[in-house]
C-alpha cells in the first residue's frame, strides 16, 4: 500500500491499470470450492478540516474504518490519500488531487470514503467530483451507506450534500 498525504513531496508510481473489461466490478467465478474473487483496486480518501481534528487523530479512525471495510469486501487498497486540515469546501486539496490523478490514469476502479461529506462539504463540488469519477468508470464507495448510481441514490446524495453545506455554515456561525 502506498500512502500519500499533503506532507509528502514526491508521488509514488501509479498502480496497475483498471480491469481488462474497463468496468469496476467484483466478479465471482467457478463453483464455491474453486471460487476465485477478482479484487477491485481502490484508493482510500480521508479528510479532516481542522487542525484540532488532525491533532486528535480523527483521520486515523476514518482510515481504520475504511481498511476494515476494504478487507471485508475484498477491495485491494492501492493508495491512501489524506487531507489533514483541509476544508471540504474547496477542490484544492493535495490528497484529493492525488485521487483524481489516480482515477485519470486508470490506476483505480473505486474510491473508498467514510461518508459523502468527507469528499466535499459543498454540494456543487460534490456533483462535479461524482461526474468526473463516473466519466472515468471509477466507483464511489462509502463505508457508512450503500450507494448505487441510481436516480434515488443520486437524489439522496444531493440532499445530504445540501445538509452538509448547511451544517458547515452553522458550525462557522458558532
Task: Give the SSE layout.
Elements (H helix, E strand, L loop, with lengths): L1 E3 L23 E2 L6 E2 L2 E9 L2 H6 L1 H15 L2 E10 L9 H12 L4 E4 L2 H4 L3 H13 L3 E4 L8 H23 L1
Parallel strand pairs: 1-5, 4-5, 4-6, 6-7
Antiparallel strand pairs: 2-3
Helix pairs in contact: 5-6
Summarize the structure in words:
The chain has 174 residues and is of the alpha/beta class. The protein contains six helices and seven strands. Strand 2 (28-29) and strand 3 (36-37) form a beta hairpin. Helix 5 (123-135) packs antiparallel against helix 6 (151-173).
Mean of pLDDT: 79
What is the overall number of helices? 6
Largest beta sheet: what is the strand line-up? Answer: 1-5-4-6-7
Strand content: 15-25%
User: Quick one: biggest sheet?
Assistant: 5 strands, parallel
Q: In angstroms, what is the radius of gyration?
A: 16 Å
**Total DSSP E strands:** 7
**Low confidence ranges:** 6-35
What key phrases describe this protein's structure?
single chain; 174 residues; alpha/beta; five-stranded parallel β-sheet; two-stranded antiparallel sheet; 6 helices; globular
Amino acid at each position: 500500500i502506498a500512502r500519500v498525504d499533503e506532507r509528502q513531496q514526491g508521488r509514488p508510481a501509479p498502480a496497475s491499470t483498471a480491469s481488462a473489461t474497463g468496468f469496476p466490478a467484483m466478479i465471482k467465478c467457478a463453483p464455491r470450492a474453486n471460487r476465485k474473487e477478482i479484487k477491485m483496486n481502490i484508493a482510500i480518501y480521508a479528510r479532516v478540516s481542522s487542525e484540532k481534528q488532525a491533532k486528535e487523530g480523527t483521520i486515523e479512525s476514518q482510515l481504520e474504518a475504511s481498511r476494515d471495510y476494504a478487507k471485508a469486501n475484498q477491495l485491494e487498497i492501492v493508495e491512501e490519500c489524506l487531507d489533514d486540515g483541509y476544508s471540504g469546501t474547496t477542490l484544492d486539496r493535495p490528497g484529493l488531487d492525488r485521487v483524481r490523478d489516480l482515477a485519470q490514469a486508470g490506476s483505480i476502479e473505486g474510491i473508498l470514503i467514510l461518508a459523502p461529506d468527507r469528499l466535499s462539504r459543498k454540494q456543487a463540488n460534490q456533483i462535479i467530483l461524482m461526474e468526473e469519477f463516473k466519466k472515468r468508470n471509477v466507483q464511489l464507495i462509502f463505508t457508512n451507506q450503500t450507494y448505487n448510481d441510481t436516480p434515488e441514490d443520486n437524489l439522496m446524495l444531493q440532499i445530504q450534500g445540501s445538509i452538509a453545506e448547511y451544517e458547515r455554515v452553522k458550525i462557522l456561525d458558532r
